[in-house]
Structure to design on (273 residues):
């Protein structure tokens, strides 16, 4: 396709993805109350002695805080609800330029990416209150903690996104191995460095940076990396046993000859003569 046709195709895909996001955001706006109650539950589990009047309620500091909270929740939940739409638009734009084997990898990636992200977000939701309890529990016993609604929403959003995206990293390792970029031997040699890097990343990336949240992110991620290493081992072992019939040839590599077909054609030509 010419460059302008590519740009028009990209524009049309972006418009459809944005319309899907807007539609999902409208649905999330209308369902704000049950969604907000669900997001607020981890905060209600913090120690009651630090809450004003024995009830852990979030505080609205500014006039526009309520509106921006509605808007952020609508965008976040709308992006999740409309994910089949905008993911399909990305796929429809990229797929025509991929080989058949690469499209198969993309199906595998998309089929595993969504469950892994949801698993990470679910783990973040279950551990959010632990970090809150640790830091709010450090407040002196004769004080009351007033947490702003914007601060809590930012904390919850960061936890869900960081956990969800971190759970995708081992999947990239598997995809790089399938593409032949990263071998199992290289992964095995870098295992200690990978484990150390995961713990450092968890200590820096988690919003609360408390030990419990860091371990809650690092330990499952290391387990997923180990699973990715096992999958890479079996893939390289199978690849070493037999050639891949779907592998694409480079420009400098000759295509294999079908000798049986050539012999049959020569015999047929001899009989004809």
């Amino acid at each position: 396709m010419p460059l302008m046709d590519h740009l028009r195709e990209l524009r049309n895909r972006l418009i459809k993805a944005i319309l899907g996001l807007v539609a999902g955001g409208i649905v999330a706006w209308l369902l704000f109350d049950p969604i907000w109650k669900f997001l607020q539950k981890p905060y209600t589990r913090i120690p009651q002695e630090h809450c004003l009047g024995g009830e852990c309620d979030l505080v609205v500091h500014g006039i526009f805080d309520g509106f921006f909270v509605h808007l952020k929740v609508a965008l976040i939940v709308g992006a999740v609800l409309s994910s089949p739409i905008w993911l399909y638009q990305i796929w429809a734009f990229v797929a025509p330029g991929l080989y058949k084997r690469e499209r198969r990898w993309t199906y595998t990636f998309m089929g595993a990416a969504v469950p892994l992200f949801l698993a990470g977000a679910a783990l973040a939701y279950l551990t959010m209150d632990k970090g809150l309890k640790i830091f709010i529990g450090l407040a002196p016993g004769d004080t009351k903690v007033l947490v702003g609604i914007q601060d809590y929403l930012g904390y919850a959003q960061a936890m869900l996104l960081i956990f969800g995206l971190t759970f995708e990293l081992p999947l990239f390792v598997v995809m790089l191995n399938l593409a032949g970029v990263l071998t199992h031997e290289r992964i095995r040699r870098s295992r200690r460095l990978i484990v150390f890097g995961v713990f450092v990343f968890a200590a820096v990336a988690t919003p609360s940076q408390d030990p419990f949240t860091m371990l809650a992110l690092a330990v499952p991620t290391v387990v997923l990396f180990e699973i990715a290493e096992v999958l890479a081992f079996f893939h390289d072992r199978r690849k070493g046993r037999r050639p891949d019939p779907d592998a694409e040839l480079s420009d400098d590599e000759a295509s294999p000859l079908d000798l049986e077909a050539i012999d049959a054609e020569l015999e047929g030509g001899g009989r004809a003569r």
Summary: Residues 3-239 form one domain. The first helix runs from residue 3 to 30.
